[in-house]
Design brief:
The chain is mostly helical. 72% of the residues lie in helices and 0% in strands. The protein has six helices and no strands. The model has no long low-confidence stretch (mean pLDDT 89).
């Protein structure tokens, strides 16, 4: 199986679909958060307007990574697993910091940690690896 295979050849594994959905949800959340910070920075009275606008734009641009990875996973592209895994690894320290907060951020940290760990398990699963056409070291078949 190549990473450019036709998805109609065999059905996409549910684990791969679930991983794509989780990556897309993370991307959508980043985009929504970025746009919210950007709008609040422009229309509100932040302490530092330039910093708020920069953060909003940065979050919106960072949302592209999991969104593109999710699309690649749905299309069964082998390259898409790398960005998806990187997104989950980057989410874990964020979740940890949210869990250390003494506020309403704790439930968000729990949710983010659960999503990141679940997505990582789905992404490194053998069924997902086969569906994406990824071969391990020393496997030339």
């Amino acid at each position: 199986m190549s990473s450019e295979q036709n998805p109609a050849q065999e059905p996409r594994p549910r684990r791969l679909t679930y991983a794509a959905v989780l990556a897309a949800l993370e991307g959508a959340a980043l985009l929504a958060g970025g746009l919210w910070v950007l709008v609040r920075g422009i229309t509100g009275a932040p302490d530092d307007r330039q910093q708020a606008v920069t953060l909003g734009i940065t979050l919106a641009v960072l949302a592209l990574l999991p969104l593109l990875a999710a699309r690649g996973l749905l299309l069964r592209r082998g390259w898409s697993r790398g960005p998806a895994v990187i997104t989950q690894i980057m989410a874990l320290p964020v979740a940890y910091n949210l869990l250390k907060a003494d506020s309403v951020a704790i439930p968000a940290g729990i949710a983010l940690a659960v999503v990141a760990v679940t997505a990582l398990v789905l992404l490194v699963n053998a069924e997902t690896t086969r569906a994406l056409g990824i071969k391990g070291p020393g496997r030339s078949e």
